[in-house]
Design goal:
Structural class: alpha+beta
Shape: globular
Strand order of the largest sheet: 1-2-8-5-3
Distance between the termini: 42 Å
């Protein structure tokens, strides 16, 4: 087990295998808010932004920082970038052009119309899970709802969802041996360098996406994939590769953010009886639920970082960042910055204001599905608390081995229900 002595290497996935290295981030925020991390023979080093205010400012600045050379720490050749890029890895105005195609489907008022569907699904998922007095809350609850909803929005068959979750886990969890045999920093992934996340699962997702594309080109379907294939106002259509990469992003990112936010929420409820009682006694329409969900998501910080590339020389906190340097925005540090949050390691479901950085909020690349994620977390927790009288954690949680995504892989709970 790697102990966080305050000096862990943020480049190493193992530094995050037991949770966020809070001591390391605390030291950096205090002593070196623009620190340098060495890379290795395959990956150049990078700058780390760890203070909330610096990240918030940088995240808004599309003139100083570019997304068009990758959003993770890894280096890519131009050919790799062009083969694997999604709209998240583009700058304005190209980014906004793609985003406008799908933004209406994920807008808050539109997402609100899904509440009845989400509540029915969540209630059934919880009811099935709690038939056992002990269960893995990630596998039996948190993992189930996000892909069911994404399947309905994308328009794919329910019978394909388990397979899509498995492939999505292999993509987003490409650094964890529990999710893939092709662990990105332990085996040679050169053969897959043109695939999403340098993963063989990327080819499987590409092949599936092409089938979905061909089907919709011959049969009009009223779903997000069909909408993507419609020409924009200038008559332009997505290429096959652009469609495949959007689908891969939706499958990978559309599932993990909500799953891991739910997992952390249930972790806190199982380990804090006062919190459990407080929310169990709260009506569904009480505004407390909205602030509670924001606090759970702040604490979860499911996306640990996004990386940008400097497009001009500039100075920050006495450091000179050069054109072409990689700069990593550590949302997982900003969300626990003592300068922004009072007692940041404590859950405060009445925290206000709560300008957390989960979902990449405050910038042009904010998560497309953040309103859907919020609603899914809220409704699932509400349905869970309606059906259980107590819940406690009975085994240590297991974390995803990744410096990109923060997640609880397994959370074993014991529950009791009303007689």
């Amino acid at each position: 087990m790697m102990f966080d002595n305050g000096n862990l290497n943020l480049f190493e996935h193992d530094s995050f295998a037991h949770g966020v290295p809070h001591r390391t981030f605390e030291r950096l925020r205090k002593e070196d808010p623009v620190s340098w991390s060495e890379g290795n023979s395959d990956t150049r080093g990078f700058w780390n932004l760890t203070r909330h205010a610096d990240i918030l400012t940088a995240n808004k600045d599309g003139h100083l920082y570019s997304s068009a050379q990758g959003i993770r720490v890894e280096d890519q050749s131009y050919e790799e970038y062009m083969a694997r890029r999604t709209f998240q890895e583009t700058d304005m105005p190209e980014h906004s052009g793609t985003r406008r195609r799908v933004n209406p489907i994920f807008a808050k008022p539109v997402v609100a119309k899904f509440e009845a569907v989400i509540r029915n699904l969540a209630s059934n998922i919880v009811e099935k899970a709690i038939k056992k007095s002990e269960f893995d809350a990630v596998e039996d609850i948190a993992k189930q709802l996000p892909m069911m909803m994404l399947g309905r929005i994308l328009g794919v068959q329910d019978s394909d969802l388990d397979w899509l979750v498995e492939k999505g886990d292999a993509l987003i969890g490409n650094s964890d041996p529990d999710f893939t045999q092709h662990v990105v920093d332990q085996v040679d992934t050169e053969a897959y360098r043109f695939m999403p996340f340098r993963s063989p699962a990327g080819k499987d997702i590409y092949d599936y996406a092409k089938q979905q594309m061909v089907h919709r080109l011959h049969t009009k379907m009223d779903d997000i994939l069909g909408l993507l294939l419609e020409p924009n106002k200038d008559g332009e259509t997505l290429s096959e590769l652009e469609f495949k990469n959007f689908f891969a992003l939706a499958v990978a990112a559309g599932n993990d953010t909500t799953r891991y936010s739910l997992a952390f929420s249930m972790y806190h409820l199982a380990n804090n009886q006062t919190l459990f009682n407080d929310l169990k006694g709260t009506n569904d329409d009480d505004p407390l639920w909205d602030s509670a969900v924001e606090e759970f998501i702040r604490f979860a910080s499911p996306t640990l970082h996004f990386r940008r590339t400097a497009v001009q020389d500039y100075k920050l906190h006495g450091k000179t960042i050069k054109t072409g340097d990689k700069v990593v925005f550590w949302f997982s540090s900003g969300n626990f910055d003592e300068r922004q949050f009072d007692q940041p390691k404590e859950i405060d479901i009445r925290r206000s204001p709560n300008q957390h950085m989960s979902f990449g909020q405050g910038g042009p690349h904010a998560c497309l599905g953040m309103w859907l994620a919020r609603l899914e977390v809220k409704v699932t927790l509400q349905e869970l608390l309606k059906q259980v009288d107590s819940m406690v954690q009975i085994e240590p949680e297991e974390f995803l081995r990744s410096n990109f995504i923060r997640g609880i892989k397994h959370l074993k709970l014991r529950i009791s229900t009303a007689a």
